[in-house]
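Trying the structure run again after the queue cleared.
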Amino acid sequence: MKDADIQQATASDPLSIEEEYDMQQSWRQDPDKLTFITCLPVEAAHDEIVAGLHDSPQCMLGDVNLFLTDSDAESSGVVVGEIELMVAVKGFQGRGLGRASLIAFLRYISTHEQAILAEYARAKEDKEPGQMGLRLRVKVGESNHRSIRLFENMGFRKTAAEANYFGEFELRLSGELAAAVDVLMERYRVDELREVPYPYSYVASIPVLL
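Done. Tokens:
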């Protein structure tokens, strides 16, 4: 990722190709991370995503990630899920792709929340999945007005009126996740979101927005 504007918007550092591959390996295997690659839309008639075709580099437009960590409050039973969203291809920015990716991602998290928390708990000896809850948040640079507006439209709310020491706003999702996703799908006229098979051993299925 060499684009200076994207690095600034996502608070990211430039990485070598080897570092990019190492990071992708980590995001795929670590129990505290979940990442989806946003690709060009496929036709609704497709019942399976073809590896190397629908997810070829030419089809990749960005990504959306979830990073899990324990809440700062001891014994709270809350797992914080921090979301990161990026549309890397400038020609597709400002066209609703980030919103569509985020709705699909939130629906996936809502549907698989217990499985996500269970995998996280298995890596934490002192955690019990049934006693854990998920709280979603995002951190956005104070000058990134477009991203702030996007997440506010998705139901996230600022936790403070002023940016923090690092020049970032923290926004948290208000209310219950599943209900929030239902509202978003109705508001933006998303008729269906279904998961289709993906023929890679480390991914059973992926969400497709229709």
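The first strand starts at residue 33 and ends at 39. Worth checking whether this holds up in the mutant runs.
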